[in-house]
Structure to design on (256 residues):
């Protein structure tokens, strides 16, 4: 005789199988954001800008920047190891052959054209000059220019891995929405550059969002790292390039 006792329904699944998992604990990301924004606020204070504007050499400042970037990268590495996530997983993409490398180079170049156009238009609309806002960082001597290359390359690698690899993935796990994760990490990235002023924060936030969109579309940080490192390197040399062009023009007028 069959039992008439009712069978309890199966429990509802607590999460969708397609849900994006976090790459580090939530507390780890909260500490990261709090520390990052606290340091950004300190750097935005007038005393900080005035002190750096009169530095006899920018090399100590560059070394401090390198130490800070790799400190943040080390913190991120510790966090993702708690979830057994590798840096290779965060970076994404793979160069199995030379063709893959050149495809990413091409993507980085096209992205450079797009992002440069957007930033120029946005800077004109907001009357913001990034080189002026960050003038105390730009190299002026040959030794500073050499160290600047290391700073620029490190920024391209570290910042893309930290913000577009780690933070964007954490925001995606929190929101389960790609667009929201791109916007959130971009806003935090912009706020981390508070020393460039309110308009600078807006411009750099959009800049970060564009890198986030590229990473989401390509599922790889490699093109963004290439473009970021190259753009920072060129931006650092812009003052020297403009100075050389000006001297060349003056010499040409004298000869004429």
């Amino acid at each position: 005789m069959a039992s008439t006792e009712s069978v309890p329904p199966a429990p509802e699944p607590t999460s969708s199988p397609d849900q994006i998992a976090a790459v580090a604990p939530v507390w780890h990301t909260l500490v990261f954001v709090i520390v990052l924004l606290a340091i950004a606020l300190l750097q935005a204070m007038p005393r900080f800008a005035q002190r750096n504007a009169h530095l006899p050499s920018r090399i100590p400042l560059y070394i401090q920047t390198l130490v800070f970037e790799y400190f943040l990268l080390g913190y991120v590495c510790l966090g993702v190891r708690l979830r057994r996530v590798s840096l290779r997983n965060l970076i994404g993409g793979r160069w199995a052959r030379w063709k893959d490398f050149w495809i990413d180079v091409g993507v980085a170049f096209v992205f450079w054209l797009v992002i440069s156009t957007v930033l120029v238009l946005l800077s004109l609309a907001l009357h913001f000059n990034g080189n002026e806002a960050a003038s105390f960082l730009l190299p002026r001597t040959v030794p500073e220019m050499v160290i600047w290359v290391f700073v620029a390359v490190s920024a391209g690698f570290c910042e893309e891995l930290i913000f577009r690899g780690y933070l964007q993935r954490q925001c995606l796990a929190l929101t389960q929405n790609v667009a929201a994760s791109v916007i959130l990490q971009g806003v935090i990235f912009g706020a981390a550059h508070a020393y460039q002023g309110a308009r600078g924060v807006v411009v750099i936030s959009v800049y970060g969002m564009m890198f986030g969109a590229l990473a989401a579309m390509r599922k790889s940080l490699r093109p963004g790292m290439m473009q970021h490192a190259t753009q920072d390197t060129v931006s650092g040399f812009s003052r020297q390039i403009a100075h050389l062009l000006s001297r060349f023009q003056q010499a040409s007028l004298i000869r004429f």
Notes: The longest helix spans residues 142-175. DSSP finds ten helices and no strands in the chain.
